[in-house]
Structures are given as C-alpha cells and as structure tokens.
Amino acid sequence: xxxxxxxxxxxxxxxxxxxxxxRLDGGPDARGRPGVxxxxxxxxxxxxxxxxxxxxxxxxxxxxxxxxxxxxxxxxDARLMALPEVTFADAPALALRLRQMTEAMLAGGHLLAExxxxxxxxxxxxxxxxxxxxxxxxxxxxxxxxxxxxxDYIEAHLGETIRLQDLADxxxxxxxxxxxxxxxxxxxxxxxxxAHRRVERAKSMLSGMEPIxxxxxxxxxxxxxxxxxxxxxxxxxxxxxxxxxxxxxxxVAARKAAASALRAx
Length: 265
Known about the structure:
With 265 residues, the protein is an alpha+beta fold.
C-alpha cells in the first residue's frame, strides 16, 4: 500500500503483530513488531508491503499545532522545529504515552487521552535521539482567578465530558501550557484532579439509594464498570462494598443515638 500525508504529522505505534509489514521504498531492512514507532512528517510518502494482520494506532497532529507546542515548550522559534522521519524505532517513552492515549480513548477517558497526546509530543523533542531539547523552566503557575474558575468549571461539569482544551480556554492558554501550569499549581494533572473529584462525588451519592449505574453516569463515568475501576483505584474497595460499609456505619450510629436517648433522664 502507499501512504501519502501532505498535511500534518503522523505518529504510528505497533500494538501487536507487524512481522508481515516492511517498507519498500528505501527504509531500513526491518519489519514491524509490537512497541516500535514510525514517525511520518508532513509531506511524507512511502510504500509498504503488508502480508499479515497487525494492530497499530495512528496519531495525526496538524503542523500548526505541532509548531505552537514546540515554540511554547522550548521558547524557540517555531521555524526551527524539525521532525525526523522514523521507521520501526524503539522509543519507549513515546510508545508508553501512545499506549496510554489508546487505552484512555478506548475507555472513554478523553481528558487522559489528551494529556497523553500532548506529553507524547513533548517526549519526542526531549528524546536524545530526536533533538534532546530541554523544556523551559515552569514559573508562576496559574493565576488565582484562573485556578478558581477552573475548579468551579470542573465541579459544574463532572457529569459531562471535560476536555483539556475546555479547561485551557478558561485561562486563554494552549492545552499543553495549561497542563504544565495546572500540575505546577496542584501537584497532579488535570485528569488526576477530575478523577479524584468524580470519585468523591460518587462517595457522597452512595449514601443514597440510587442505582450504581445511575451514579456512574451522574459522575461522568462511561459505565458502571468504569466507575468501579476508578473507585477501587481511589479507595481500595468497590462502590457496592463502600455502600455496604457506609450503610453499616449509619446503622451503628443510629443505634448508639437511640441507646443514648433511652438512657437520658
């Protein structure tokens, strides 16, 4: 097959298989395999022979977005950005980010996927094999009014899909710059903060009698199983177990209150 990409840049990570894939137009004498990376810069064209099934993920990034992130991350002229052409390379840091992005998208975690995507692009430029650049030191963080508005927005939209760019727009920042400033201010990524707040809301709702599937939807989880995974990760127990324990504590407290009332003169 032929690959033509006149607009934008492409990152391709092999997830499984690939031994039946090789490049025909002068690339390395190698075949695909799980974990290897291909980078196809804007304007790239190539010819491939594919003789077996394999699984991979493609990340397409517009050139203007790529250059903007390069300029603001490294404080360099965007015209200095040079994206290498890479075929079947071992790049563990980038592979990890692209896997995280893929898993997050499959699980409906759009915010986590966006964070992994922006971090992957940053990891590319700081990788010694592809430039070894050093990011600018973080200073200042988010302004107090931006912090307040961001947290208010999160609380008001916990039951909906929260996107990184939606949060960045509050402070009129790029998604990547906002992500770095948020972590500097709060010690966790935007996704980490949102995930924690969703679990906390679920904990408070489990005091009632609403079905757990309904609570999952109200807290922004894609399904009951998604809530269960996140809840167990955050608390060590499942939502149903947490509800049972909480109900038991409530019953014990009610009995103690009744006993105290009976003993009162």
